[in-house]
Design a protein that fits this description.
2 domains, four-stranded mixed beta sheet, 16 helices, about 45% helix
C-alpha cells in the first residue's frame, strides 16, 4: 500500500514547498526494486540504500518546491500532484494508493477508467485509488505553460505557441523547468548518491539559466520547480515515467495554470506499445486525455517528426544559442555530439544544411572529421532491442537523405547500406 497524507505548504530559504507525508510499505518497495532492477536503458539506484533512510526520519515526505512568490499557487487542497507522481511506482509494484485529501473527479475517472486499465492490461490485478473525490474546480489563475528543457521538442513548442500569431486562449504565458533529479544512463559505479545528485544539480542549473533567458526574450514568466521524487522514491526510469513526473509538477501548481502544452516526442499514440515498461512518449495522447482536472487541461503540441521540427526551428535564435539535447551533459551543459540525444539532432541538421549555424552548441569540427563514424554509431545503436526510437530516427534520416541528395545525405545512405551487409 502507498498512503499519501494531506498536502501542506511550508516556506524555507526563499522557497515554498508543497509537501505530503508518504508511507510505502516494505513489500511494496521490495516489489518495485525487483521489477525495475533489470530494466534496460535506465539508471536505477535502488540497489544502493533503498528504501532510503529518509523514509524513517520524522517529517520525511515527498515535496515540490517553487520560489516563495509562487506559494499562493501551490495546491494543498488536492492530492492530485502526489497521486500522479507516484502512479507509475504504484502500478509497477501492484500497490493501491490511499490518499487523505480529495482527488479531482475528472482526474480520478480518467485514471481509473482509461489510463490504469490500458497501462496494466497485462497485469494479474489492477490497482485502486482509495480516498475522497470532488468535482469542485480549484480556484486560481488561468496561465498557459509548457516545459522548457532547451531541447528540440520544447523549443519547437515555444515556436508554435509563443508567437504573436498564436490564438490568445492557448498562447504561452509561462515556461517551466521541472528539476526532478532524474538520472540518465551516464551514471556508472561506484554510486555515491550525494555526489550524483550534486553533479546533476550543477548541470541543471545551467539549463535553468538558459531557459530563464529564453523566457525573458519572449516576455514570459519563468518558473523553476524542483522535487525529491527521484532522489527519495523512484531512483531512475525517466523514459517509463517521464510524463507522469511533469504532469505532477503542473498539478502541484494547479491554482496557477489552466493549460499545459505538452511537447510531443512525435511518436503519437502507439496503442500496441502501451504497457508499464514502454516509454510514456508512446502513449502520450492517452496520458493527456486521462490526467486533466476540472481546472487544468493538457494538450499535445502536435505530432511533428524530429526532422519536421528541425526544419521549422533550425533558424530560431533560441535554438541556435541554447539547444541542449545531450545525455552526457557536463557542468557547462555542453553537447557531447556522440550520444543518441546529440546524434538525432546533429545528423538531420547536417543533412538539411543547417549545422554550420551551431558551432556554439556543438563541436561541429569534430563531427565533420568523424561524420561517417557518427552515422555508423547511430545505425548500430538502433539495432539494440530497446532502441525503437533510434530505429525510427534512422528511418526518418534515410528518407530525408533521399530527398536532400547532398554530400552528407549520400554519405548517410552509403553507411546505411554498408551496415545492412
Amino acid at each position: 500500500m502507498i498512503t499519501i497524507g494531506k498536502p501542506y505548504i511550508t516556506k524555507e530559504e526563499k522557497l515554498a514547498y508543497l509537501r505530503a507525508k508518504i508511507y510505502i510499505s516494505s513489500d511494496t518497495a521490495r516489489r518495485y526494486v525487483q521489477r525495475t532492477s533489470e530494466l534496460v536503458n535506465c539508471a536505477w539506484l535502488t540497489a544502493v540504500d533503498y528504501p532510503p533512510a529518509i523514509w524513517n526520519e520524522p517529517g520525511s515526505n515527498l515535496w515540490f518546491s517553487v520560489p516563495e512568490e509562487y506559494a499562493e499557487y501551490l495546491c494543498e487542497e488536492r492530492s492530485n500532484a502526489f497521486v500522479i507522481a507516484l502512479l507509475w511506482y504504484a502500478m509497477v509494484a501492484g500497490s493501491d494508493i490511499c490518499f487523505e485529501a480529495p482527488v479531482s473527479q475528472q482526474l480520478y475517472d480518467g485514471l481509473t477508467q482509461k489510463l490504469i486499465p490500458a497501462v496494466m492490461k497485462d497485469a494479474d490485478t489492477q490497482i485502486s485509488l482509495i480516498g475522497p473525490v470532488t468535482s469542485d474546480e480549484v480556484s486560481g489563475e488561468h496561465g498557459v505553460v509548457s516545459g522548457m528543457s532547451c531541447g528540440a521538442d520544447s523549443l519547437y513548442t515555444l515556436h508554435c505557441y509563443g508567437s504573436n500569431s498564436t490564438p490568445e486562449d492557448v498562447k504561452l504565458t509561462h515556461l517551466m523547468y521541472c528539476e526532478l533529479d532524474y538520472i540518465f544512463p551516464r551514471v556508472v559505479p561506484p554510486y555515491d548518491i550525494d555526489e550524483i545528485f550534486y553533479k546533476d544539480g550543477q548541470i541543471n542549473s545551467q539549463i535553468v539559466n538558459n531557459a530563464a533567458i529564453i523566457a525573458k526574450r519572449h516576455h514570459m514568466s519563468f518558473l523553476h520547480i524542483h522535487s525529491n521524487l527521484d532522489r527519495d522514491y523512484c531512483r531512475g526510469g525517466l523514459i517509463y515515467s517521464g510524463m507522469y513526473r511533469f504532469l505532477a509538477c503542473t498539478l502541484a501548481l494547479e491554482r496557477l495554470f489552466s493549460i499545459y502544452i505538452i511537447s510531443s516526442s512525435g511518436n503519437g499514440n502507439q496503442v500496441e506499445e502501451i504497457s508499464l515498461f514502454s516509454p510514456t512518449q508512446n502513449y502520450e495522447d492517452l496520458i493527456c486525455a486521462s490526467c486533466g482536472t476540472e481546472k487544468l487541461h493538457y494538450m499535445i503540441s502536435d505530432h511533428a517528426t524530429r526532422v519536421d521540427k528541425l526544419r521549422v526551428i533550425a533558424d530560431d535564435a533560441d535554438f541556435r544559442d541554447f539547444v541542449s539535447v545531450c545525455y552526457n551533459l557536463d557542468e557547462n551543459a555542453s553537447n557531447c555530439g556522440e550520444c543518441y540525444g546529440c546524434m538525432k539532432t546533429i545528423i538531420p541538421l547536417d543533412i538539411i544544411g543547417k549545422l554550420n549555424q551551431f558551432d556554439k552548441t556543438f563541436d561541429t569540427a569534430k563531427y565533420y572529421a568523424n561524420r561517417q563514424d557518427v552515422f555508423r554509431n547511430l545505425i548500430r545503436f538502433s539495432k539494440r532491442p530497446e532502441a525503437s526510437a533510434a530505429r525510427e530516427s534512422v528511418k526518418q534520416f534515410m528518407k530525408l537523405s533521399i530527398e536532400a541528395d547532398n554530400e552528407a545525405a549520400r554519405e548517410f545512405i552509403n553507411v546505411c547500406n554498408e551496415e545492412k551487409r
